[in-house]
Amino acid sequence: MPRERVGAGYYMHNLVAALAGVDVANQYHLLARRSLLPDLPAGGGNLRVDGLAPESRALRLLWEQTALPVLLARHRIDLLHSMHYTIPVAVRTKRVVTFHDMTFFLYPGVHTAQKRLFFGAMMRLSARLADAVIAVSESTRQDILRILGVDPAKVFAVPSGVSPAFRPAAEPSLVERVRGSYHLPDRIVLYVGVLEPRKNLPALVRAFKGLVDRGLPHALVLVGRKGWMYGDLFRTVEELGLSGRVIFTGYVPEGDLPLLYNAADLFVYPSIYEGFGLPVLEAMASGVPVVTSNVSSMPEVAGDAAVVVDPRDVEGLEGAMHRILTDGALREDLAHRGVERAGLFSWERTARGTLAVYERVMGRQMDSLPQRLNG
């Protein structure tokens, strides 16, 4: 799990904490890199936390196949949940694996050749050997079934949750404090996520240029760390002369993020593919109007509480943004519907859905468990 919790790391942290809270009958043993211990849920009660896995990614993957099976046998673990695509091959322990998306197959060009080859092979093997596969959305579940051809009866959609920290801010002064900390203007359009090709950010910048040309006063604020292959994004900003209107904050601490959502007039997430699309849910929970893509899992998360557009249609994206930013009644309606929609998702519900998969694997709910468990 990365030190800066995003994506899969955020899922791991919140799910483990929620599982320990909803399930008092079972004991949980969390294994992670030692450097991450300060960021993990505190042990105690029915949760034991140990720092065992190596820091190096390569050594960690080797450890998973060699040392981890020994630990599972020594501690007499009944079930292993690997929360990031891969599982140890040679174990007798029941195994559950979470697939967060299928980009290694659908968008291989956004990964290095080494990662693409390794994870492509290991995901096929993990899906075949696991007793159950958890997908973070129904869209991802359907991708798994179509691409990997595994038994549909053992693949379950258990959508992610949203922290209660994401809500409409009760104190405007706190929002203004965070706005000042990042030197943001009064009117902003916001994006939150890693800067990488799949997020389709050059298209967002081109659509934003249309808003600038129409005379709107907003700045575009891109919140998130640099990922990979982000050069085209920075070139697009420079070529369109938007250096003064596009603000890059880098990674933002979790404590500031809910208030940054509240500082925005509009949240835009034009990704071309998402396994779940957590920032869409966070923005809706914060009471911010949302424009997002009409592909993969994003319509599933947004429901009727956001405006969805073809992410490759720059003019359509610009038009949706302009309509919301210039129509106060529409912004208010979307904000209200977004909060209601986000109320359907919580980490407690995710934990209960995950626990139901565990019970199925252990033979406690063999006949009554649906493949879609939440959302």
Describe the structure.
- This protein has 375 residues and is of the alpha/beta class.
- The chain folds into 2 domains: 8-161 and 346-361, Rossmann fold (3-Layer(aba) Sandwich), CATH 3.40.50.2000; 172-342, Rossmann fold (3-Layer(aba) Sandwich), CATH 3.40.50.2000.
- The chain is 42% helix and 15% strand.
- It has 14 helices and 12 strands.
- A 6-stranded parallel beta sheet has the order 9-8-7-10-11-12, sandwiched between helices. Strands 3-4-5-6 form a 4-stranded parallel beta sheet, sandwiched between helices. It has a two-stranded parallel ribbon with strand order 1-2.
- Helix 1 (8-22) crosses helix 14 (347-361) and helix 10 (278-285) crosses helix 13 (328-342).
- The mean pLDDT is 92.
Beta-strand portion reads: 5-15%
In CATH, what is the homologous superfamily of the largest domain? Glycogen Phosphorylase B
Number of H/I helices: 14
Major sheet: arrangement of strands: 9-8-7-10-11-12
Quaternary structure state of the chains depicted:
single chain
Number of strands: 12
Task: Give the mean pLDDT.
Answer: 92
Task: Provide the low-confidence segments as ranges.
Answer: none
Radius of gyration: 21 Å
CATH topology of the largest domain: Rossmann fold
Instruction: State the end-to-end distance.
Output: 25 Å
Q: Could you say which structural class the secondary elements and strand pairing correspond to?
A: alpha/beta
Helix percent reads 40-55%
Count of structural domains: 2
- Main sheet makeup: 6 strands, parallel
CATH architecture of the largest domain: 3-Layer(aba) Sandwich
CATH class of the largest domain: Alpha Beta
- How do the SSEs run, as a string of H and E? HEEHEEHHEHEHEHEHEHEHEHEHHH
Q: Overall 3D geometry?
A: globular
